[in-house]
Amino acid sequence: MKNLLSFFKGNTPATVGTTIVLVFVLLSVLAPWITPYDANKRVARGHQPPSAEYILGTTRSGKDVLSQVIYAGRISLLVAFGAGLLATIIAVLVGITSAYVGGKVDSFLMFVTNVFLVMPGLPMIIVLAAFLGQVGPLSIALILGIFGWAGGARVLRAQALSIREKEFVTAAEVIGESRWRIVLVEMLPNMVSLIVGTFAGAALGAVMGQAALEFIGLGDPTVISWGTMLQWAQHSSALIVGAWWEAIVPGIAIAIFAGGLTLFNMGMDQVSNPQLKGSKNLKRWKKLNDELEAQRREKLAATKRQNQGGVSTV
Amino acid sequence: MGRFLGSRLLFYIAAFMVAVTFNFVLPRMMPGDPFEIMFAAAQGKIQPEQMAVLKEQFGFVAGPWHVQFWDYVKGIFSGDLGPSLTYYPTPVTEIIAGALPWTVFLAGTATLISLFIGISFGIFAAYNRGGKFDSMVAPTLAFVGAFPQMVSAMLILFGLGVVLDWFPVGYGYNPDIDAGWTLAFFLSVAYHAALPLITMVITGIGGWLFLMRNSMINTLGEDYITMGKAKGLSTRRVMVNYAARNAALPVVTAVAMALSFVVAGALLIELIYNYPGLGNEMLGAVAGRDYPLLQGLLLIIVVCVLTANFLADLAYFWLDPRLRKQ
Amino acid sequence: MIENANQQAEPLLNIRGLSVEYLVGDTRLRAVDRVSFTINKGETVGLAGESGCGKSTLAFALAKLHKPPALIAEGEVLYKGQDVLAFNDEELRRFRWKETSVVFQSAMNCLNPVISINEQVCDVLSAHNPTMNRNELQDRAGELLKIVGIHPDRLNQYPHQFSGGMRQRAVLAISLALKPQLIIMDEPTTALDVVVEREIMDQLSELKEQFGFSILLISHDLSLMGEITDRIAVMYAGKLVEIAPTEDVLFKPQHPYTKGLINSFPHLFGEKKELTGIPGNPLSLYSPPAGCYFEERCSERIHRCKSVDPKLVTLHTGHKVKCHLFSQS
What we know:
The complex is a heterotrimer of chains A (314), B (326) and C (329). With 314 residues, chain A is mostly helical. Helix content of chain A is 78%, strand content 0%. Chain A folds into 2 domains: 11-276, MetI-like fold, CATH 1.10.3720.10; 279-314. Chain A has 14 helices and no strands. Chain A is flat. Chain B has 326 residues and is an all-alpha fold. Chain B has 12 helices and no strands. Chain B has helices at residues 2-29, 34-42, 48-57, 65-77, 92-127, 132-146, 149-163, 183-220, 223-230, 235-273, 278-287, 291-319. In chain B, α1 (2-29) packs antiparallel against α12 (291-319) and α10 packs parallel to α11 (278-287). Chain C is an alpha/beta fold. Chain C has a domain at 43-60 and 93-99 and 180-326: Rossmann fold. Chain C has helices at residues 55-62, 89-95, 107-110, 117-128, 134-147, 164-176, 194-211, 222-228, 246-251, 256-264; strands at 13-24, 27-39, 44-48, 70-79, 82-83, 100-103, 182-186, 214-219, 231-236, 239-245, 312-314, 320-322. The model of chain C is unreliable at 1-7 (pLDDT under 50). The chains are: A mainly alpha (314), B mainly alpha (326), C alpha/beta (329). The interface between A and C is medium-sized, with 16 and 12 residues.
C-alpha cells in the first residue's frame, strides 16, 4: 500500500491520469442510475442544441447525447480494457518466454513479434473485419488484443533479459528452483510497473482502434459505443449542418479517456526513469544558482569599483 | 554494412509474404462463400463467367491448397491483382496506381514536416527544461496529439474549412483544373492538401516532441556532453552535434515502430476529407464488399510501410557509426 | 589591479574557501566544505580520498562544470588572479580548455560515440581558433595523436574502434590540444588494467616533461600518486584534512585518516604486514557532527574531537593538518 501511495506522490501525470480513468469507470458502472434518459429512445426532436433539458443536445434521431455518451462509455471501456488485458497477457507470455528460454524459441518468437510490429495493424484489421461482415464488441476486443501485443512483448522481453542477468536469478537457478517458480516469484514482481504500463498502452491503442473501426462502419450499429456515435454523426453530416454536439461529445469523451491513459503512462515512465521526474526541484535549483551567480557578479563589480577608487586616491 | 541491411531486407520480404499468406487464407476461412457475397454485392454488374475468372485470380483453382497458394503468389509477383468489383472491369492495379501517389504525398509530407518540427521543439524543450515552453507549450501539443485523429480532423474541418472557409474540404485538387505539370495544378493540389496536412502535422508533433525531449534529457546526462562543455564549445554545437545526434537514435527506432500508426492515421484522415488516396478507396471497397480491391490495397499499404521502415533503417545506419563494419 | 611591491610568485590556481552543496529536496548537503589550496606553475598536485569524499565534485567545480543539483555555495577559484566562478559566459568559454582542460575517468564515456576522433579534436581547435582552415586543423590533429603515440591514419575512426588504452591516450591528446596551463585529471587510469595504466602514466610523465603544464590528479590510489605528484592533498567528507609534499604524506603522514589510507595498501614486496583498514562507515552528510568529521572512526581521538571541529594548522612549510592532535587550544 505504501508503495502505491509513493507512486503518486509528486507524480502529477500519474495522479491526474489515474483520476480521469477512475472517473470514467465510475460513470460507466453507475450509468443506469445517473443517465437522465434512456439512451436508445427517441426523446425529442432531432438535433436539438444543448439546453437545460438536454444538457448535451440530441442526435439526429432525437436521442439524448449525454445519456448516450455515458452508456457508450460502458462498451468502449469494456472493449478497451478487454483488448488491453488480452494483449498484455500475450505480451507477458511471449516476452518472458522469449527472454528466459532463449535460443531458437527466442529467435522465432522475436521474428513473429517483429512481423506484427511492422505490419500496419489497422488496414489488416479492416480487411479482416470486412471479410467477417460486421463485428460486435466482443470480436473487436479479440481482434484488437491479438493485434496489439507486439510492442509490449518487445519491451517486456528486454526487461526480462536484463533481470535474468542479475545475480539473484542465477542464485535461484543454482539452488535448483524450478523454472516456473523463478519466473513467477523472482522475475515477475520486478516487472510489475512495466506490465502495468503495457496494459495502459494496449488499452489506449484499443480505444483508438475500436473508434476507428466503428467509425468506418465495421462495428455493430445496434450497439452504442463512442465509435458508433461518431459514425452516426458523420452520417448525419452533423458538423456541416451545425449540430456540432453530436460529433464533438463522443470525440471529446474518447480524447479525455485516452488522455487519462496517456498521462498515466507518462507517470509510469517517470517511475522507471527518475531522470525525467521533478522539474520542480530543477526550478528551485535554477533559482538558487542564479542567486549565487548574482552574488558573485556583485562581489566582482564591487571589487572592481574599489580598485578603481584605490588608484585615484593613492 | 551489407550484412545489417541485407538481413533487414530479408525480414521485410518475409513480412510481405506473411501479408500475402494472410490474404490467401482469409477468403478460405470466413463464414460463407466469399464469391456469393461478392456476386450479390455486385448487383448484376458481373456475369457468372466473369465470376469464374475472379475465382481463378484468387487462387481457387483446381488442386490442393499449396498449388493454389503457389498460383496466387505467382499472380501477385507478376503484378496481377485481379479486377475490382466496384469498378469492374478496371484492374485493381490501376485503381491503386491512381490513389497511391496521393496517399504517399499526404503521409510522406506530413510525417517529414511533423518530424522536423517535433524534433526541433523536443531539443528546445529539453534545453529549457522546466521553462515555459517545456511546461506549457509541450504538454498542450501532446494533449492535442492524444485526441483521436478523426476527431481532430473533424474539428479542423469544421473550424478552418466550414466556419472560416480558409481551405477547401475534399478532393485532391480542383476538378475544373486539368491534371498536368502546370503551376495552376500544383497550387490547387497544395491548396486542397492544406487541411489534411495541417491535421496530420498538428496531431503528430506532440508525440515526436516528447520522444526527442525525453531522449535528450537522458543523453544530456552523459559524460561526453560534460566534456563538450568543458572544451568550451558553443552551446549550439554541444546541443546539436553532441546531444541531438545521439538522442536521435532511439527516436529513429521509435519512428520506425510508429510508421504503421502514421499510415492508419492517414487513412482515417483521407476518409474525413474525402481525399483521393488509398484510404478513401478502402472505405468504398469495404462498403461494396470489393474483396479483390481490399486485398490489393492491403498489399500496397504493407509495401509502403515496409519501405518506410527500410528507409528508417537506412537513416539509423547512417546516423550510428557503430553499426558500420570495422 | 594594484601592484603589490613584495609580490611573490603567484600560484597558477588559488582555491579559496570553496564550498559545493547538493540540493536534495529542501536540504542543502555540503559535499565540499571551505576547501583552500593552491597549485603552482608546473606543479603536480594529487587530490586523494575515498569515494564520495568530494574530490570529483571539487574538480568539476573548478571550471564550473558542476551539474544540477550541485551548487557552488561560496568561495573563489582564482586563476592567475581572476575568479573563474565570476566569469561571464564568453569569458568562461574562452577559459575552458585553453587554460584548463579535463581528462575524464572513462574515455569511452567522455568521447562522443557518433562523430570521428578527428572531428572531436578539430572542433575544440576551431572553437578557440576560428581562423584555422580545414587543412591546418587536420594537420594539428594528426600532430596531437602522434604525440601520444597514435598513428594519424586513425583520425577518421570512431571511439568504439579504439582499444581502451588508446582511447585514454586520445583523450590525453585532446586535452593538450590548446596547450593548457593546467590539466585536471579525474581518476584517469581507474578504468584501465595495470599494464595499460603503466603505459598511460609513463606517457603522462613524458608529456609533463615536454610541455610543463600543471596537473591536478584526482585518485584514490595513493601509490600511483606517489610516482608523479609533487604534493598530495587528502580529503575526507568534503573537508581538506591534510596537504603536504608527496614524500611527507606517504612516509610521514600526520592525520589519522591519512595514516589509515596508507596502511590500507599492501606492499608488493617486503615482509607481510597486517593490514589495518579504517573501521566504521563513511559519514552521512545528512546529519554532520558538531565536532571533527573523522572522530567516529579515529583511533587517536581525544576529548575535544567530539565537540569542536579542528582548524587547518601549518606544521612546517607546506605541511598542513586539520587535527586537534596538532593544534594548540
